[in-house]
Amino acid sequence: MGHSRTQVHQPVPEFLSRTGAEVWRHAVRRGQICREHRRRRTKGHRRARRSGHHHGVDGPRADASGSGARVGAGRFACGQPPVRRPDDSLCFHPAAQSSFNFMKLCLFGLTDIPVGKHNLKDPRLDEADRLVEAKKKTYAQIDVVGQDETLTSDAILVPRDGLLELIFLDLEFIETRLGRGPTDAEKAVLEKLKAQLELEKTVFQMQLGPEELQAVAAHQFHTNKPVVVAEKEELQDPDALMVRAFGESGYISFFTVGGKENRAWPVRQGTTAWEAAGTIHTDIQKGFIRAEIISYADFIAAGGETQAKRAGKQRLELKTYVMQDCDLTNFRFNK
């Protein structure tokens, strides 16, 4: 049985035409439906909070120091791992949305590597896991896709003998555009791209001015993104090849270690500490106070987390700090 809705009659303005009046009535009905939906959702939300089952997770534990900050499950662990929604590319935490997107790596001319999620078996995380005991080790992941997704991927992995084929696709596109009578400005940019592509240079590698970049962005070039060329001998070790492609495509990982899990979190180069906090959980990002950072080099040289702290190698960074590759990180944040 459907739920009845209380109808609130609002007079139709006299200046509206017959069609306008129908639109007005429809808008009023939609508004009533939306208000009713919000009212019921709010009641359910409050009921869930009272019962202690809001979002199906326990509340975060408070810092023992009484500072109001919340801490993760371990000394450097900062929250539960996010999970992937099957219907889009965003990564979601069971309780709140994370701001993390999987890097999408396209395999062009490579059939031996299966598509799907791949763990980046980084030996640096292996070494951190050896020095700091945890129940679980979780590598960073990337999304590996087939060559039909070259235009929508973040980077392309191609064998040496397949690079020319990829470049030819862009040359073919440019020839088609030039044959359709482009403007003088567009023609100049396309001819410049063509000359560079004929020298086996990708669009991403070219030195272009602001206006030229704007013209390039108006089209979908296959090589207007990082293209990682794999040598024949590298194909024998796909795990190491994936790690190299990840780094050369403008990505890094930061580590959270200790307690339940030692984990690598993938982010783009140039990501700030505040943005990195959001890859773990949006609550950490919203309540960000400071990031406790130990560089990987200091961590290894000291022989572990405790030793690095004793040596004074841990530092506090603000939200504008730019994350470095393999930073060992703990986030302080408010409730």
What does this structure look like?
With 335 residues, the chain is of the alpha/beta class. It folds into 3 domains: 16-42; 69-150 and 232-334, Roll (Ubiquitin-like (UB roll)); 163-221, no CATH class. Helix content is 35%, strand content 21%. It is built from 10 helices and 15 strands. A 5-stranded mixed β-sheet has the order 6-8-5-9-10, with helices on one face. A 4-stranded antiparallel β-sheet has the order 1-15-13-14. The longest helix is centred in the N-terminal third of the chain and has 34 residues, at 18-51. Mean pLDDT is 78; it is low at 1-8, 15-20, 40-45 and 47-99.
Main β sheet profile: 5 strands, mixed
User: Number of domains in the coordinates?
Assistant: 3
The low-confidence runs, each spanning 5 or more residues with pLDDT under 50, are 1-8, 15-20, 40-45, 47-99
Kindly state the number of beta strands. 15
- Please identify which CATH superfamily of the largest domain we are dealing with: Beta-grasp domain
Radius of gyration: 26 Å
Instruction: Quickly give the CATH architecture of the largest domain.
Output: Roll
Distance, first to last CA: 42 Å
Element-level helix/strand string: HEEEEEEHEEEHHHEHEEHHEHHEE
Spatial strand order of the main sheet: 6-8-5-9-10
Helix segment tally: 10
What is the average per-residue confidence, as pLDDT, rounded to a whole number? 78
- Annotated CATH topology of the largest domain: Ubiquitin-like (UB roll)
In CATH's first tier, which class of the largest domain applies? Alpha Beta
Q: Which secondary-structure class do the elements indicate?
A: alpha/beta
The coarse silhouette is elongated
Query: What is the percentage of strand-forming residues?
Result: 15-25%
Task: Estimate the helix proportion, in percent.
Answer: 25-40%
